[in-house]
Design a protein that fits this description.
By secondary structure, the chain is of the alpha/beta class. The chain has 15 helices and eleven strands. The protein has two domains: 169 residues, Alpha-Beta Complex (Spore Coat Polysaccharide Biosynthesis Protein SpsA, Chain A); 205 residues, Four Helix Bundle (Hemerythrin (Met), subunit A) (Up-down Bundle).
């Protein structure tokens, strides 16, 4: 397994060198981003190759950002990187990668003797054996074009193996003007099959993307965003509990704002590497608290017309259905999703997970409240959500036991 990354900063005379201190992509400098990406991809040792003047300014900038705390070995370009043996990963700070894609690429890379790179990624990443590292670092010091020329030359010599890349492809930042497009591409890559096809796609993600690009430049943390989303959702529920068309419209707008903020907290967490198990739990449970509060407030709103006993039963049935649906999805994803399940269980779970978004909840809430029939929303949840979690248990069963500290990939959040 590769555990060493050599990050080669472009020589001081190149335009790319100026980007290291002047350009930030999604709130992080290029050097901080490449180091955090490598760390989250499983790299444990970090070597940064930069000239003396660059080292002074880059060390200071890295310290000011305070995001990367692992020890870094700084070396001059003319010095052969001190690599004990085996292969290492060579990266350019001006090529933006995602940690998941890099981890997958490293894990699947063939154990070849020569140089390995990704097809079409002229700026890397590159896996290099010790005997070719010096030449690769020298070429990478000339920037993206220099490393691309090195890869073409080694390919012609038969020393290069191309290994396919899955996920968001490497994105080059050659000037400050490239940063917005790179950020938009990264945000688009964060969308998942679990996103709803209507509200999530055309409303929530459409609004959360520009909002997230502003938030990553602020000191606001993902967990703070989750709290703001929770408070906005609770306020929405309280407003929705009152009669009146304008109050209903305000409550719906506040609820949708809460959902958009809920998307942004996860986007900020992933783009800035501030995700954590605590953030995932906080994000998911705060959503559920908002849903239950909306049920309670709407039940109170319709109690006068339905009668207390009837509305209490209906509200409890809706709350039980929403809670049951939340728990089966939450614990299946928390414990690794469909990994280890049989083929039929995997297909059933994948189908049900694709339905486990808030599109249905949002559309039903908007439609029933706007036409003045909030009781219909409670009936929809009481019937539909209970059928959902019962179908899940019948088709998929209970999730397997997780390893300590394991968090499945299907949970979104900070």
């Amino acid at each position: 397994m590769v555990d060493t990354a050599v990050v080669v900063c472009p020589a001081g005379g190149l335009p790319e060198a100026n980007l290291l201190e002047t350009v930030r992509v999604a709130g992080l400098s290029l050097l901080t981003r490449v180091l955090l990406t490598a760390r989250h991809a499983g790299i444990a040792r970090f070597i940064v190759v930069a000239s003396g003047n660059q080292q002074t300014s880059l060390r200071a900038a890295l310290g000011r950002e305070g995001r990367f705390h692992e020890p870094v070995e700084w070396q001059e370009p003319a010095t052969d990187p001190r690599l004990p043996s085996g292969r290492c990963l060579v990266l350019l700070p001006s090529v933006v990668l995602t940690a998941n894609a890099l981890r997958m690429w490293l894990g699947q890379a063939p154990q070849a003797d020569g140089i390995i790179s990704s097809q079409g990624a002229g700026g890397g990443p590159v896996l290099v054996p010790a005997d070719a590292l010096g030449a690769c670092v020298e070429a990478a010091g000339k920037g993206i074009e220099g490393l691309a020329a090195f890869l073409r030359r080694t390919a012609n010599e038969g020393r290069l193996t191309w290994h396919p890349w899955d996920g968001l492809p490497p994105l080059s930042v050659r000037s400050a003007a490239d940063a917005p497009a790179v950020e938009r591409a990264m945000l688009k890559a964060l969308r998942t099959p679990e996103d709803g096809p209507i509200v999530d796609r055309y409303v929530n993600r459409t609004v959360s993307g520009p909002l997230t690009r502003l938030l990553v430049r602020s000191p606001i943390t993902p967990n703070q965003l989750t709290v703001v989303s929770l408070l906005t959702g609770l306020l929405a529920a309280w407003v929705l509990g009152h009669e009146g068309w304008w109050l209903s419209l305000l409550g719906l707008a506040l609820f949708q704002s809460s959902v958009i903020l809920d998307h942004s907290d996860g986007e900020v967490a992933r783009l800035t590497f501030q995700f954590s198990p605590l953030g995932k739990w906080l994000d998911n449970w705060s959503d559920h608290v908002v849903d239950l509060t909306i049920i309670a407030c709407l039940a109170r709103r319709v109690s006068a017309s339905m009668g207390l006993a009837r509305v209490v039963g209906l509200g409890l049935a809706a709350a039980a259905g929403v809670t049951g649906s939340f728990l089966v999805v939450f614990f299946w994803t928390l414990r690794g999703g469909t990994e280890g399940a049989g083929a039929s269980s995997r297909r059933a779970a994948d189908t049900l997970i694709s339905m486990a978004n808030r599109d249905g909840f949002c559309l039903a809430l908007w439609a029933t409240v706007l036409i003045g029939r909030p009781a219909w929303f409670l009936w929809t949840l009481a019937l539909g959500s209970n059928l959902y979690w019962l179908a899940w248990l019948v088709l998929c069963g209970l999730p397997s036991r997780a390893k300590a500290g394991e968090v499945g990939p299907g949970i979104t959040g900070a």
